[in-house]
Amino acid sequence: MFADSCSASWTWHHISPAIPIIFAYLLFICFSSFLHGSLTDPGVSNMIILYLTCADSHQIFPRHIQAFPPTEDPLAIGPPTNDWVMVRLATSETAAMDVPVKYCKTCNIWRPPRCYHCRVCDNCVETLDHHCVWLNNCVGRRNYRFFFAFVSSGTVLALLLTFASLGQVIAYSNQRHVSFVHAMNKNRVPFAMFIYGLLAFVYPSSLWAYHLMLTGRGETTREYLASRRFKKADRHRPFTQGNIFKNWIAVLGRPRPPTYMRFKKEYESGDQRYGPIRGHHARRAEQAKNGDVEMKPVKGQKGFEGPTGKIPQRGAR
Fold first, then answer.
1. Which of 33, 43, 160, 284 supports an S-S bond with 150, CB 3.0-4.6 Å?
2. Which of 54, 104, 124, 132 is catalytic?
């Protein structure tokens, strides 16, 4: 009786088989979107995935092998690393706007507009929205739709779980002609899932509404948060398509561009695919391998640091 009341079989036989079928289909979409958003390139080894955080899942720009600027004098002033690019606005045939671009000293490349360097992934990602801790990956141009599908399906799953669990308790009460309290006592697990669904619905629904607003405005999370530093009259959205529907189509309906990374390409010196591991222990291991000496504070006897007592005043005896 307990297994029959808290499983999908009771809903299948006593309410409708469509409910567990739809729930299983949405669950498959949710897990599939999660895997596509975090592990798009399954052929890459785990070590390279650790370095690049699945470079094929978001638009990563390969690092340039040669450092910039090449100069022998460390005190010499190099060329500028900031510039502006004129972007034509979609809302006007003649209007345009200057968008800042920056040279990345880590990747040795000029970042195109809307490209930023992620400190966690240690890569420049095109149209970087944010680094998602749930996906353990950046959300960029090539995997934003997977992230949005993951959040959307999670929201619908939580909503369906809430109403399906409550509907099972109500259907049990109506079919057995008992009170709701008695039906709740007999179906404790479905009622507990009803409460869990209410609590689980809050976070993904708010995140889904937030990104639905961002895509409608033609902005990313970084651009939206950066615009909060200015007055409302000084905020501009140069990448908007003019209205909310065109922005949704431009973000969610565009084809996924090809990746810039070629993992089967022959290795060259300074190749991005085999970049150094970040972190203090990795730097110490690299220095020990190259025979470099790491600067450390000298621990020895305390030397003379000047007088510590009071200096007698003139005329004092």
1. 33
2. 132
In a domain, 280, yes or no: no
**For residue 207, which amino acid is it?**
L
Helix (H, G, I), strand (E, B) or coil at 137: strand
Burial class for 148, CB neighbours closer than 10 Å (0-12, 13-18, 19+): buried
Asked if residue 292 belongs to a domain, the reply is no
pTM for the whole structure: 0.72
Residue 115 appears among annotated catalytic residues: no
pLDDT in tens, 255-277: 877 776 665 566 666 555 555 54
Domain that holds residue 264: 2-275
State the Cα angle at 6 between 5 and 10, rounded to 5°: 50
C-alpha–C-alpha distance, residues 268 and 63, integer Å: 12
Whether 306 is covered by a domain: the verdict is no
Residue 83 and residue 74 in contact, taking contact as beta carbons nearer than 8 Å: no
